[in-house]
């Protein structure tokens, strides 16, 4: 299998605080990879370094064997789509216009019927075509998140990065979004990297899980290999039962690990 996305010896930090340390990662076509770990483990930082929102102190990020550092923003946008955890800026546009922005890396600002058709396709795919003419700023947080995912899919890149894509969604829409993503990854041979807190969602929908702690990978592999009581205790400091249902592990938290006094 040829690696679509490869990270070698990546390090990043703020002043004297190290966030990522000598990080390695390789993801092939048609793979959905979830990056899990406690708050502060470096998940979001990793996503932003891949998309060059943040500039690593050292290391290399490659897509299709091309160095991301050597690309301009438009070239990156043709290869990598990014879905932030929240809409940090308020778009004064309609939902349709926000999704249409996803086509920007491929053409000039002058649109075409083909580009509009692609935007409609993504709105329908996410089941939000009824919101097309609504102002983006008037939507709920969960609705905005689905619009941002539709915009990223409209870019038609080989790699899509998602930072907590289900955090503002109810359980029905969480499942809906994860099933859409998994279906697209398989049908279109996409490479998806998802920073996510929900361990059971990660286990159910991912081909591979990377479990992080303090900027480094503690465990990496298939969900049933990574989701173990031992790994959860080391990474999260919790006791948990891990059971198998429909060939998928699911985590039942039992409580925190009590630290022994010296």
TrEMBL record:
Residues 5-239 form the ABC transporter domain. Keywords: ATP-binding, Nucleotide-binding, Transport. CDD domains: ABC_Iron-Siderophores_B12_Hemin. PANTHER family: ABC TRANSPORTER ATP-BINDING PROTEIN, HEMIN IMPORT ATP-BINDING PROTEIN HMUV. The keyword rRNA-binding does not apply. It holds the Pfam family ABC_tran. It comes from the Bacteria. This is ABC transporter ATP-binding protein. InterPro entries: AAA+_ATPase, ABC_transporter-like_ATP-bd, ABC_transporter-like_CS, P-loop_NTPase. One of its GO terms (molecular function) is ATP binding. Signal peptide: none annotated. The keyword Electron transport does not apply.
């Amino acid at each position: 299998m040829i690696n679509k996305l490869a990270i070698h010896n990546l390090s990043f930090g703020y002043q004297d605080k190290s966030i990522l340390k000598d990080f390695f990662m390789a993801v092939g076509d048609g793979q959905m990879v979830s990056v899990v770990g406690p708050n502060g483990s470096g998940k979001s930082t990793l996503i932003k370094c891949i998309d060059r929102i943040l500039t690593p102190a050292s290391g290399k990020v490659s897509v299709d064997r091309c160095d991301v550092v050597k690309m301009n923003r438009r070239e990156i946008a043709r290869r990598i789509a990014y879905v932030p955890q929240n809409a940090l800026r308020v778009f004064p546009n309609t939902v349709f216009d926000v999704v249409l922005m996803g086509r920007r890396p491929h053409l000039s600002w002058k649109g075409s019927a083909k580009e509009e058709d692609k935007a409609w396709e993504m709105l329908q795919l996410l089941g939000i075509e009824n919101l097309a003419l609504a102002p983006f700023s008037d939507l709920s947080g969960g609705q905005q998140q689905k619009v941002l995912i539709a915009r990223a899919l409209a870019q038609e890149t080989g790699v899509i990065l998602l930072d907590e894509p289900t955090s503002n969604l109810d359980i029905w829409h969480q499942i809906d979004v994860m099933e859409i993503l998994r279906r697209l990854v398989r049908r279109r041979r996409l490479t998806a990297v998802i920073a996510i807190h929900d361990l059971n969602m990660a286990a159910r929908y991912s081909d591979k899980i990377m479990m992080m702690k303090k900027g480094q990978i503690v465990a990496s592999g298939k969900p049933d290999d990574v989701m173990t009581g031992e790994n959860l205790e080391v990474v999260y400091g919790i006791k948990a039962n891990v059971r198998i249902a429909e060939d998928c592990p699911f985590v039942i938290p039992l409580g925190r690990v009590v630290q022994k006094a010296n």
